[in-house]
Each structure stands twice: as C-alpha cells, then as structure tokens.
Amino acid sequence: MEYCTAARVNDSVTQFKVYEDYLDSKVKPMDLFYLKSRELARKLVEHGHKGTVLSREEFEEKKAAAQAAQAAKSNTFYSRSRPM
Question: What percent of the chain has pLDDT over 90?
C-alpha cells in the first residue's frame, strides 16, 4: 500500500518541469476568475488553502529521487540488453 502511494507521488511530481507548474495544477479557473492573479493563486495553494501540497523542498527532493530511480532503471535495462 505504501509503495502505491509513493509511486503515485513520484509519477505526479515527474509530470511537472518546475514547482510553479505543480502549483498551477492545483489552481482552478474559478480561482483565477476571483483572484485575478496567478501569483496570488499559487501562494494560496502553497500555503495549503487548497488542500495538501508539497513544499518546494519536498517537490525538488521527490523529483530528484524519481529521476534517479528512472535513470537507474534505464541503466539496468541497457546493461541487460547489451551483448557481451
């Protein structure tokens, strides 16, 4: 069960290039309508007013870990597929 949750978090983190894109994914069109500012909407999300979100540090750590795991996985695949 814990593995599934970690895998979902890693998948959700890797689909975003930067932390701001991650925050933007939590902002709804209605938020922008009323707030009139994407920056303000991001700050509200970052401070937890739209539910639980990762901090910038947590996002960067999880993204780096997911990229390292993906690199290790591709290196393992590559080393197994090479003829000796």
Answer: 58
Q: What is the spatial distance between Cα 15 and Cα 71, in angstroms, rounded to a whole number? A: 16
10: tokens are: 């890693």
Q: Give the start-to-end residue ranges of the domains of the chain.
A: 2-81
Distance of alpha carbon 12 from alpha carbon 26, whole angstroms:
12
pLDDT at position 7? 54
Task: Quote the CA–CA distance of 25 and 17 in Å, as a whole number.
Answer: 12
Which H or E element spans position 39?
A: helix 38-46
pTM: 0.72
Token couple for 26: 């939590």
